[in-house]
Design a protein that fits this description.
Layout: H1 10-27, E1 33-36, H2 42-50, E2 55-58, H3 64-74, E3 79-83, E4 87-89, H4 94-103, E5 109-116, H5 121-135, E6 149-153, H6 154-159, H7 171-180, E7 186-195
Parallel strand pairs: 1-2, 5-7
Antiparallel strand pairs: 3-6, 4-7, 5-6
Length: about 210
């Protein structure tokens, strides 16, 4: 819920949880952890009431990467997959595609591709500015990843945590540390998520 405190609307969070809980019911073997660095509030309480099957991890004041690190430690699965509450997978194959290289033993971490909603010039420019390092990158090994759409073997994420501190997101430093440790992250171009763009009112955003 990190982005809720930055002004993200509740509808996006509800849609993300609806997608994940439906996937969990259909597939089984999926644990959903709502990682929450906010002080107790009505917004999150409403989400938890609507989705009682979701495990709530509340650590007020935790940073963006710090709360993700804590979620990995608390999770019980073989893999940990991150989806921010203002993002929505493009289709129901997202999870299988993102986890495919991990399940096949080709990598221990994978990076999906994130775009902003919309087809206008502004949203395309914003997508390239924020996620162009993945969108325009064709090499299978990435030098950075989008923290809102990625997967790790859980033990790897616990052993090699993303640095947490004043910088909001340390995905570049984390990726480089994984490369130096001989555990590079693979790009999965067909594991696509759409991200809400809130910075400007764009008539092309849906």
């Amino acid at each position: 819920t990190f982005n809720l405190q930055d002004g993200q609307g509740m509808e996006a969070a509800r849609e993300a949880l609806h997608y994940l809980t439906r996937l969990a019911r259909e597939r089984g073997g999926i644990e959903i952890v709502l990682a929450d660095p906010m002080e107790p509030n009505l917004l999150v309480a409403t989400l938890l009431e609507r989705f009682p099957e979701v495990k709530h991890l509340a650590v007020p004041g935790a940073g963006y990467d710090g709360i993700k690190n804590l979620a990995a430690r608390q999770a019980r699965g073989l893999y940990v997959v991150y989806l921010d509450s203002d993002c929505r997978p493009l289709d129901d194959q997202w999870l299988d595609r993102l986890l495919a290289p991990l399940r096949a033993g080709k990598a221990k971490a994978a990076a999906g591709i994130t775009y902003y909603y919309g087809t206008g010039l502004w949203t395309r420019v914003q997508s390239m500015l924020d996620f162009g390092f993945l969108i325009g990158h064709e090499h299978p090994i990435v030098g950075c990843y989008a923290s809102n759409n990625c997967a790790f073997e859980r033990q790897l994420r616990v052993a090699y945590e993303a640095p947490d501190g004043p910088m909001r997101c340390t995905c570049f430093a984390h990726t480089q540390a994984l490369i130096r440790a001989g555990k590079p992250m693979l790009r999965v171009p067909d594991a696509v998520c759409r991200h809400i763009l809130r910075a400007i009112r764009d008539p092309d955003v849906v």
